[in-house]
């Protein structure tokens, strides 16, 4: 991830202190979530080792998510055309 | 009548449908034929009986393209076809947890049917559990059903329902912060958004209405019985999102049930009088920081978290030491509100809209070195440039000098650069495809499943795989779904098919039994039904055993029409998809 990019957490109506989260903060939270998931799975490791493993797992997860994308997202989206329902 | 501490809950979900073929991408399918394909697999794998609304919806019966009554399964669930969508209704559930369990069982069954159905071109049938298509800006629903009490006198009941609606509205406007599914962009041209909490908020434009396909409302006023019509009715809510997160679906149903109980006990107290509930619904949906204030009639304002806290504090009166499930629900409601007040990102393991923000879009936006405010500004520009039925955002090279000049002020106002147009346009479509992939039911292709497998999403209370698998075939023990299952199993033992028809509240049996009513949704056994089945079992002249084809259809191959989507002109004639299908089918 590029450092320091602002990840807006509001559409503009919020107080300034809640408007944005940096990409580092978001990455940290994702790492914390992954660490918590590892703890729930009963995995034991030193904090540093666990953090490094969490980072690797998240990178692999991001790659897996990326792999879901088709070769032409525009075509995918415009062809997902549904009838209006209820 | 006392307030209901026991009621039945249910969910009905319309699914988005498509065919995905390797190398050819998506194709629009004839959705009615797709339904028939899935139905065929269903018949091979599950005992079912035909559903029949017994003429309750004559307008639907006249248009076989729009409605197919479908079938009930032995779990008590119903599989049917409605307005161009495969639809799944859970059986009557006796608790919010149970309703979610059966919703997950429905997801799993549909995913299995889609995987087994012989898709054209060797492709894959997509079933997408969401509420918006980003191409046509169309919506489809995930409706909630709650059994509520009915007052005896008409005038009293009308007043009661009007009061109930008024007391529910502030809760419904704000509960999306707990259970919104999250969507990209806006369907309201006057109010741009990069990202929204709710998929349905932009498609709700009034406070109360009985309509579902247009004029959708915060409170649907359709008056239908649920069980004994003299004492109960069905509250049919249509504003909610289809959830992938079981935790979010559980909170949606559970907190709504508690607020209904408050209203029935006349205990909600004074509720916030929102100045404009529809505007508030959209404000909350666009406020992913969860700090926006909602104006009150008569002055003052309140946040969405504040509104929810008011209802939560009043619902605490129901907490009792012996009711662990209720305790879990109240605790989860409080914890989620505390977390939202502290930092919405703390819900990244349980609220769909936050899960997507944290795990799908956050990393991608960071890589693109952009943020939601910028994405929202570009979305505003793109919404003004889209064209054709699929609302395609044109390439920069397609823009005329007059177009670029016309929109220069928008770029200036938001400090955007034409040099970023191509990258933002690509991001626009990548984010939308990711969003649709999150909602894909196929665990091999679903971003939600990837996150769940990684342990990053809470499974929901008691939602273990073995219970979900059991719920695919076994009805809830506490409701009339059991009676329906009894009929299905009996009919299959007898080799009966179309001679027995089911509706939610009645069974049509061969003579001399006739119609048997299942009046109490919370009665798993019905003595008159058991008696009728025993009586029929002794008759020698019941119709002979045979295969159970769908009524009115033979066993020939189901024809599938691939509909070419022309993205620059209206793909469907003015009469809608139904008219197109009728023309294709020569009807």
Care to describe what's here?
The complex is a heterodimer of chains A (86) and B (587). Helix content of chain A is 53%, strand content 7%. By secondary structure, chain A is mostly helical. Chain A has a two-stranded antiparallel sheet with strand order 1-2. Chain A starts with 5 loop residues before the first strand and ends in a 7-residue tail after the last helix. Mean pLDDT of chain A is 75; it is low at 1-7 and 10-19. Chain B is of the alpha+beta class. Chain B contains 18 helices and 22 strands. The model of chain B is unreliable at 57-65, 544-556 and 565-587 (pLDDT under 50).
Structural class of chain B: alpha+beta
> Helices and strands of chain A: which structural class?
mainly alpha
What percentage of the residues of chain B does DSSP assign to strands (E)?
15-25%
Question: Can you write the helix and strand succession of chain A as a string?
Answer: EEHHH
Distance between the termini of chain B: 51 Å
User: Which bin fits the share of residues in helices of chain B?
Assistant: 40-55%
Which residues of chain B form runs of ≥5 with pLDDT under 50? 57-65, 544-556, 565-587
Strand runs of chain A, count: 2
Q: Compute the number of strand runs of chain B.
A: 22
Please list the strands of the largest sheet of chain A in the order they lie side by side: 1-2
Largest sheet of chain A: 2 strands, antiparallel
How would a textbook summarize the main sheet of chain B?
11 strands, antiparallel
Name the poorly predicted regions of chain A. Answer: 1-7, 10-19
